[in-house]
């Protein structure tokens, strides 16, 4: 019986001695910062409008290009600018909570020559907020008949610096500046066709700070 | 609405209780027969005091404990999501159990021990895998090129009343067999299973593939339906609390079976299989199935971020999921429990043993492995101790007592008191802070027709008094 009493009291002590209370405070300033990888969209464009302007060039040079099997002087550089809506307000109005942003540009070049691209973020007034590039995209694979058989893929990534992050709320458009070289590196006859194009896919990694 | 809330509150208030494994080898507690029907009480007549002969508590979470969720600095607790993720298992569950034994009566006719019991059994489980947790804390970037799957996740609620007719009989001098035939009446059930639902993030384009293959069956005081807009809504059932608790439309059947086998070299082997059965739910049923597959690679062709970006993502995802709803009867299987253990006497008063318990859910198999010791402290007190691996933790020290002052019997036990103990030595204040399992069971019984000489031989066929074993009695 004595053993029992001792044993029982030890048990009671264990149970009840832990019931002392303190004022513990759970910090409500805590946050988590998940990072999301999202696809922002696809776009395909061609240089046909620029290529058609070649008809205005009268002088035929030894190094020439063929556009729809019509010969044109080369080399020339065809420039183009394309703008798309790019509004971060659609992701979050609380830009302060975006702690990291990376854009991934995936180019699939369907032209047989290299392309140079620059990306520019602009506000509603057209002012440039951030510019990245130029990126060089190699030409597509061609067959023995100088026709493109396979797109050339190039992937570029860039993280936004802190000073740009603070201006994200101003961004409304993304503008791409393209330069297509009509001369191949091998000085071979280059053929362009109407069905050629460039495909662009944009993805983003966004780190977002969430506070409960 | 008020009735539904009342019923819900009553159910939740029950959900702090359940059966503990510490009793498994202790046949002097009649309710240990719930774990092994072959256990044979030492007294001729055993009566559980109605409603308080077996009240059990369990709250278990195998993912992480309270301490692991916070970093403490002085009296400030700062949540630590990274550590939560680190400590969580591949498959996790939160479990709330209640078992209340309303009635227990057992009587020995010669060698045949017959018993009858009525029990309220309530179980609530939430299963979640690490992918879901990681997706919430770290986002989908860690899953680039991988699936974040909900496989093994789900929610399950069972509340049923069990009418149990049991017997235990020494078939041979060294082998006792027992079984229960249980008639079940389901009161509430919910089973949500996301099956192969998941999200895949393309490692190159960050395009997302959503696959939805999920279903939900419920029999609750609410019924789900579509409104005119196609949205999911619920209606309360005009059912009184009395009607809810006395509902007999959801009938089921299950059996429990067990054995006790004396090997002849002082080792007694125990085994049992419990809850092999089902309930067919017929009242207030809802069956929801959601199927869908969706590939999201950004806004439509030739468009980037526009002002409706998030709306479009959510809308496209929503459109891709086809939800069908019905109100058909369905069958719910009861999670199966399997026990296997062995016990060996060390001295006249002390026996040691080991026990393995497996609870089989569709989402997860719960495993308990324990070392047990039973010590007879004088004539009236039996102590039970255990050290077990359960809920992905080795911090489970069980302790229990059974007090026999005939005809009164009171027992109380927990499979885990370390939460209290660790709180004490580390000066922490919230009881379950350092443990993954809180577990308690107690009850009062009346026992008649017991042997007067109390030289216990508690192990083996311990219903035989004054003899060292049933085998020697037969001889």
Radius of gyration computed on alpha carbons of chain B: 26 Å
Could you say what the CATH topology of chain A is called?
Jelly Rolls
User: Helical element count of chain A?
Assistant: 3
The helicity of chain A comes to 10-25%
Proportion of residues in extended strands of chain A: over 45%
Number of strands of chain B: 25
Task: Give a short account of the largest sheet of chain B.
Answer: 21 strands, antiparallel
Termini distance of chain B?
A: 66 Å
Taken together, the total number of domains of chain B comes to: 1
Helical percentage of chain B: 10-25%
The CATH architecture assignment of chain A turns out to be Sandwich
What gross morphology of chain B would you assign? globular
Order of helices and strands of chain A: HEEHEEEEEEEEEHEEE
Radius of gyration of chain A, taken over Cα atoms and rounded to an integer in Å: 30 Å
Oligomer: heterodimer
Describe the 3D structure:
The complex is a heterodimer of chains A (212) and B (475). Chain A has one domain (32-208): Sandwich (Jelly Rolls). Chain A has three helices and 14 strands. Chain A has helices at 2-16, 48-52, 162-165, and strands at 25-26, 35-45, 64-67, 70-73, 77-85, 98-109, 115-122, 128-137, 141-142, 148-150, 152-159, 173-181, 190-192, 198-208. In chain A, strands 2-14-6-11 form a four-stranded antiparallel β-sheet, with no helix packed on it. Chain B has eight helices and 25 strands. Chain B has helices at 2-14, 66-69, 81-87, 130-138, 241-245, 309-320, 418-425, 470-474; strands at 45-48, 54-61, 70-73, 76-79, 91-109, 112-129, 147-149, 154-172, 175-193, 198-201, 208-219, 222-226, 232-236, 250-262, 268-281, 285-296, 321-326, 330-333, 336-345, 350-360, 365-377, 381-390, 393-405, 408-416, 437-448. The N and C termini of chain B lie far apart (66 Å). Mean pLDDT of chain B is 83; it is low at 1-18, 424-430 and 453-475. At the A-B interface, helix 1, strand 1, strand 2 and strand 14 of A face strand 4, helix 4 and helix 7 of B.
């Amino acid at each position: 019986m004595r053993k029992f009493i001792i044993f029982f009291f030890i048990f009671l002590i264990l149970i009840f001695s832990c019931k002392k209370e303190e004022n513990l405070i759970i910090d409500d300033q805590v946050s988590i910062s998940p990072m999301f990888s999202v696809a922002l969209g696809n776009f395909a464009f061609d240089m046909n409008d620029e290529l058609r302007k070649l008809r205005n060039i009268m002088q035929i040079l030894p190094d020439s290009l063929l556009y729809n099997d019509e010969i044109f002087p080369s080399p020339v550089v065809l420039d183009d600018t394309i703008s798309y809506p790019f509004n971060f307000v659609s992701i979050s109005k609380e830009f302060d909570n975006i702690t990291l942003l990376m854009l991934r540009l995936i180019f699939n070049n369907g032209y047989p020559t290299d392309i140079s691209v620059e990306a520019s973020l602009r506000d509603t007034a057209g002012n440039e907020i951030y510019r990245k590039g130029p990126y060089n995209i190699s030409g597509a694979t061609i067959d023995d008949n100088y026709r493109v058989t396979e797109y050339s893929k190039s992937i570029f990534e860039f993280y936004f610096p802190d000073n740009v992050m603070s201006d994200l709320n101003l961004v409304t458009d993304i503008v791409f500046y393209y330069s297509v070289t009509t001369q191949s590196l091998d000085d071979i006859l280059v053929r362009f066709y109407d069905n050629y194009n460039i495909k662009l896919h944009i993805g983003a990694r966004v780190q977002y700070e969430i506070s409960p | 609405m008020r009735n539904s809330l009342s019923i819900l509150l009553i159910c939740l208030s029950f959900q702090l209780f359940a059966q503990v494994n510490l009793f498994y080898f202790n046949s002097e507690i009649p309710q240990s027969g719930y774990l092994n029907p072959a256990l044979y009480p030492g007294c001729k007549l055993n009566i559980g005091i109605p409603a308080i002969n077996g009240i059990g508590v369990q709250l278990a979470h195998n993912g992480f404990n309270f301490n692991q969720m916070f970093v403490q600095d002085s009296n400030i607790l700062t949540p630590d999501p990274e550590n939560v993720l680190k400590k969580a298992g591949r498959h996790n569950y939160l479990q709330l159990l209640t078992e209340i034994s309303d009635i227990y009566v057992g009587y020995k006719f010669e060698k045949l021990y017959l018993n009858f019991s009525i029990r309220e059994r309530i179980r609530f489980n939430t299963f979640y895998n690490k992918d879901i947790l990681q997706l919430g804390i770290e986002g989908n970037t860690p899953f680039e090129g991988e699936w974040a799957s909900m496989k093994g996740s789900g929610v399950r609620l069972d509340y049923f009343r069990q009418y149990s007719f049991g017997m235990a009989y020494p078939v041979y001098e060294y082998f006792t067999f027992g079984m229960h035939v249980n008639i079940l009446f389901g009161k509430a059930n919910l089973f949500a299973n996301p099956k192969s639902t998941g999200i895949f993030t393309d490692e190159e384009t960050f395009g997302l593939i959503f696959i939805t293959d999920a279903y939900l069956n419920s029999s609750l005081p609410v019924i789900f339906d579509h409104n005119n807009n196609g949205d999911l809504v619920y209606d309360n059932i005009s059912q009184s609390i009395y009607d809810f608790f006395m509902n007999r439309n959801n009938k089921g059947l299950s059996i429990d079976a067990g054995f006790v086998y004396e090997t002849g070299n002082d080792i007694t082997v125990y085994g049992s299989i419990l809850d092999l059965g089902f309930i067919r739910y017929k009242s207030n049923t809802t069956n929801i199935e959601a199927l869908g597959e969706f590939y999201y690679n950004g806004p439509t062709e030739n468009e980037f971020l526009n002002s409706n970006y998030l709306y479009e993502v959510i809308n496209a995802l929503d459109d891709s999921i086809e939800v069908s709803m019905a109100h058909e009867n369905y069958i719910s299987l009861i999670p199966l429990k399997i026990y296997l253990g062995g016990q060996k006497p060390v001295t006249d008063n002390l026996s040691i043993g080991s026990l393995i318990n497996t609870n089989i859910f569709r989402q997860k198999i719960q495993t308990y492995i324990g070392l047990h010791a039973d010590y007879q402290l004088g004539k009236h007190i039996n102590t039970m101790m255990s050290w077990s691996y359960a809920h992905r933790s080795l911090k489970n020290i069980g302790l229990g007592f059974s007090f026999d002052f005939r005809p009164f019997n009171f027992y109380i036990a927990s499979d885990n008191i370390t939460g209290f103990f660790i709180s004490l030595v580390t000066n922490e204040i919230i009881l379950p802070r350092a443990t993954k399992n809180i577990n308690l069971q107690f009850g009062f019984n009346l026992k008649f027709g017991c042997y007067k000489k109390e030289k216990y031989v508690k192990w083996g066929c311990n219903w035989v008094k004054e003899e060292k074993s049933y085998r020697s009695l037969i001889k």
